[in-house]
């Protein structure tokens, strides 16, 4: 989705249409449409925002919030599809402008076999392409211990020092930001 204000759309409709056509001809996008009014634009956003909710209806969803170079944005989706084959569906969507990718692998139920196809591959692939395993949604509880794929030990210690300075009692978002080893008392204050 490309979002713009209506005033810009009014003045630039021909340029947006040419951009969309060129993007389709170049294979960058498979299909596209330009909203004709605010109501249609709102409907497009409702569909986009409903992707995550609709995904969970399939069953299990393995979610990854990655930041990778824009030119590699969809490569991991294709590689992951090859890895999981017909055992899962791979869905990738995100932010072309900043390289954030919501990578979702969907299956009818959670499976250690599927997880083994995903991890640590997704983290290693991202690190190998100079990306980050935590884009706009942060590390969270499940990925805090995986930060070493994206950050050096020195960077993690610097982040831990800042966290301790700003939140000495660890009451702000506890356990969700950094690995516990970086926040432990023996690491220094």
From TrEMBL:
Its cofactor is FAD. Residues 15-177 form the FAD-binding oxidoreductase/transferase type 4 C-terminal domain. SUPFAM superfamilies: FAD-linked oxidases, C-terminal domain. Pfam families: FAD-oxidase_C. InterPro entries: FAD-bd_oxidored_4_C, FAD-linked_Oxase-like_C, FAD-oxidored/transferase_4, Vanillyl_alc_oxidase_C-sub2. Belongs to the FAD-binding oxidoreductase/transferase type 4 family. PANTHER family: D-2-HYDROXYGLUTARATE DEHYDROGENASE, MITOCHONDRIAL. This is FAD-binding oxidoreductase/transferase type 4 C-terminal domain-containing protein. It comes from Aegilops tauschii subsp. strangulata (Goatgrass).
